[in-house]
Design brief:
Blueprint (H helix, E strand, L loop, with lengths): L2 H15 L12 H11 L4 H14 L3 H5 L3 H8 L5 H19 L7 H4 L7 H12 L8 H10 L7 H11 L5 H14 L18 H6 L1
Helix pairs in contact: 2-3, 2-8, 5-6, 9-11
Length: about 210
């Protein structure tokens, strides 16, 4: 099977069998999604969702978070991974939104990456989910799946993102990001992947080696 055929088969299966795929982070505005995605780095969506309702209530708008003290924000995120840096990033992000972007979450990738705590992956998530931009966010699940399935042999996140972007149609990239993440989270897990119940196993490079 060529790589092109693998892309066609894998994403054809997703298209037919998983017509709806959405973020598992709970949010009610672009600003709140940005908070949630920053907090989700090296942390599960489930844990983030446990804490964000109180954070969203306390900081409904960027101005509210921009004026908050470090101690207050730290207290609200202390049980999430890397609380000190994330608290600082959240406040800095809100302050820049207010000062540089009129309190509006930007849609441009480069502008998003100017915000404290926002790297390529986070910028791609926001641009994709909120603005339907044709970008692919590569997290640990997407990176792992891309190699296992045979969608990419890229050695870096940037290389995998570039190959996925080339192989997936622009209009399908936003949902493809969620297809891969959710499949990696629940089916193609890091340990003991559920190959016997995996719908894309027939097109998977690693699975073919087990036959």
């Amino acid at each position: 099977m060529t790589k092109k055929q693998r892309y066609e088969q894998v994403f054809g299966w997703f298209r037919e069998n998983v017509p709806v795929a959405k973020p598992e982070l709970v949010y009610d505005s672009p600003f709140h999604l940005l908070i949630a995605v920053i907090l989700s780095a090296q942390c599960t969506d489930k844990r983030v969702n446990m804490h964000t309702p109180a954070i969203f209530m306390r900081f409904p708008e960027p101005e509210d978070l921009a004026a908050a003290s470090f101690e207050e924000v730290l207290g609200m995120v202390k049980s999430i991974s890397y609380p000190n840096s994330k608290a600082a990033h959240l406040i800095g992000m809100a302050q820049m939104l207010v000062s540089d972007f009129g309190s509006v979450v930007p849609s441009d990738i480069d502008e998003l990456k100017r915000l404290p705590g926002v790297g390529q992956k986070t910028a791609n998530v926001i641009a994709s989910v909120i603005y339907d931009k044709p970008v692919i966010a590569v997290d640990t699940h997407v990176f792992r799946l891309s190699h296992r399935i045979g969608l990419s042999d890229g050695k870096t996140v940037e290389a995998v993102e570039k190959e996925l972007t080339a192989g997936i149609a622009p209009e399908e990239r936003p949902i493809a990001h969620h297809w891969l993440i959710l499949h990696g989270r629940y089916i193609c897990t890091a340990r003991n992947p559920k190959c016997t119940t995996c719908g894309i196993a027939p097109f998977c490079r690693e699975f073919s080696k087990k036959k």
